[in-house]
Specification:
nine-stranded mixed β-sheet; about 270 residues; alpha/beta; homotrimer; 11 helices
């Protein structure tokens, strides 16, 4: 039950090591605190192995990657693998440049990820080696709808099987699968796409959920995805007509902060296939 | 009409490539989303040419420049020039260090900018090769007033002619000129200077306005400047007595999010000379 | 009197050079503006000496250090020492990795700091060369309580004597000492630890307070610590039941913005030992 997933984050307060972009890093730190976890950001190759060793989970996000941080991602990822720590990959903008595509592919080749979370265009690029990512947003042609849902699930399951990772494809409908069990989550609000970094925040939070629920990793990912979407719904209800995307972004983090396990259990909107 | 400028941003949703500082980058991303554009931040030399190619506009901001990102700025700028994409330069702190002054001068020598936007001290330094910038704020002696307005306009026009760029000098009164036509914008609120990065945000948004209105670049810049100032006025009106600069910053972005083309048309306070 | 300390920041508007982490840098800039100072962020070795020379104070924070910025910290610190500018060190995560511990120790060896501000675990690590920092938070075993307060004060005084710096150990009770005079500050609210970067913000603000009150450095540090804690109390009172840590973070900065010298004088909760 999703309730337990959040409960365990609050109980265990996992320390999460983030190697992430400088655009949304502050929100990633605050959402980790909001859900009950602790953030640490460190990206120098001389310290990442040590930092990741004192943490319970690692979140790798390629949003503003560069040669210096790519090396650190590989070092941290390998160390986390050695220690059996859960690792989340957020392949931001995979498909938008060769550097991003090749880095993401190198990462999944050299590191065993627990979770790979991205939009459909990013995940397709990662699976097929090329794609049509429009910057950091999903291509409209790739959009997940009720019509193509079954196809996307099949694709996600195949990619989960190939990588051994839980695949989380987020969009209007979110798909989480470990190949055996698949969750379709229908929480969220369209306005979330007008706030920068809701995906990055979800990846950070996913690392916390998986770190605190290692025996139930798939369910933990689904719970994190559902919590983020439900926070988007809750936050939307608070908005007055003069509020915009900036206030909305704050309210989403606030909603995670105030979300009890019971609220998540009740607010979660998903089916298992 | 400014109305059309904003309308076209909302219609075209231009993807804007930002090579910008890590201080205000999150707000730059959110204000781009607020006005209807999409942000992508990428600063590694191995990907900037490709990233800028999939975008409609480029925003270069030297706020926390370093040798690695300076090289990327030059690569991205040249590629954008080749593709005829609009480019905005925000010479943050030009005059505060040799590195900033020389980098900004090198950038305008090697790249043809569509717009150069800064405070009066930064633009003077850029034009004369030396100046009195106080950190990232304009020197008080440089302040634009009704008394020296004509002189500043003459200076801006001469610099526009020399560089071939639209010059946007922002302050209590904003001057936008392409040498032929000059806009004086009187929107804004003094409290905006207590929020970090309102200038950076304006530069990012200016790139979006110019990208979506390439046939009317000067008017697009004036509309962006006016929209930012008007958002500052709108946001100020929402403040309660316990609100301060942090809430004000959020409300400014909110105001852009909620600004309709009609509201901008009505709220814009400018004259053409 | 703390009142005068804040008054002088507002009067002198000190320009503060920050070499700081990319996680909380935006909040550091906004809190500096909120208290009446001006921020500039610059971390390239080619410009830091020049930038620090035009400023009145320097704030060095090792939150996301790397080899490039460590070199810049040393250059800037030495230049600030030459110019007799006050310097604050925030040894974020000292103890969490060898790189952080060694860098912090190298910094205090090669640079004379005016103030060293951190949590008890960070300061202990710095004093003893090893410690038990849990990421960027203090170890629970290190927690300052009424019971161990005298011991912690003795430790802080000894470290102040050894380093010649004012030591500010912040936590549930804050200790500020220059070895001769010790302030115990009891402002603040537990929820402040759920907002990322309140420590970083305090360090930035401390640099401003010391820069504007160089004749009364210890009292200036105590006033800054008290102002931050009091802002946490004020902000907490504004919260509605749907507000969380994100809104709380904004309100803390807002509270600094609206804090008059008289309010600080009245709200400050401290004793001198």
């Amino acid at each position: 039950m999703f309730r337990n997933m959040l409960e365990n984050v609050r109980k265990n307060c996992p320390l999460i090591h983030n190697i992430t972009n400088y655009v949304t890093v502050n929100d990633c730190a605050n959402i980790l605190l909001a859900c009950g976890a602790s953030p640490i950001m460190a990206d120098d190759k001389e310290e990442v192995a040590e930092i990741t060793a004192i943490c319970s989970g690692l979140n790798i996000n390629i949003g503003t990657l560069n040669n210096r941080t790519i090396e650190s991602m590989l070092i941290a990822g390998k160390r986390a693998n050695d220690l059996n720590h859960p690792i989340v990959l957020d392949p931001v903008g995979c498909g938008a440049s060769k550097l991003r595509t090749e880095t993401a592919m190198k990462l999944i080749k050299e590191i065993k990820f627990t979770v790979i979370r991205g939009n459909i265009s990013e995940i397709k690029t990662l699976a097929f080696g090329s794609g049509t990512t429009k910057g950091v947003d999903a291509d409209i042609a790739d959009k997940i709808t009720e019509e193509n849902l079954d196809n996307v699930i099949d694709f996600a399951k195949a990619f989960a099987e190939k990588t051994g990772a839980i695949i989380a494809i987020t969009g209007a409908i979110d798909i989480i699968t470990d190949n055996r069990k698949t969750y379709c989550v229908r929480n969220g609000h369209p306005m979330m796409s007008s706030v920068t970094g809701t995906g990055c925040q979800l990846s950070a939070m996913t690392a916390a959920f998986v770190a605190a629920n290692s025996e139930h990793a798939s369910e933990a990912v689904a719970a994190a995805v559902s919590a983020m979407g439900y926070a988007g719904e809750t936050a939307y209800k608070r908005l007055t007509k003069t509020d915009g995307n900036s206030t909305y972004g704050n309210y989403i983090i606030d909603a995670i902060y105030n979300m009890t396990p019971e609220m998540l259990e009740k607010g979660a909107n998903y089916e298992v296939r």
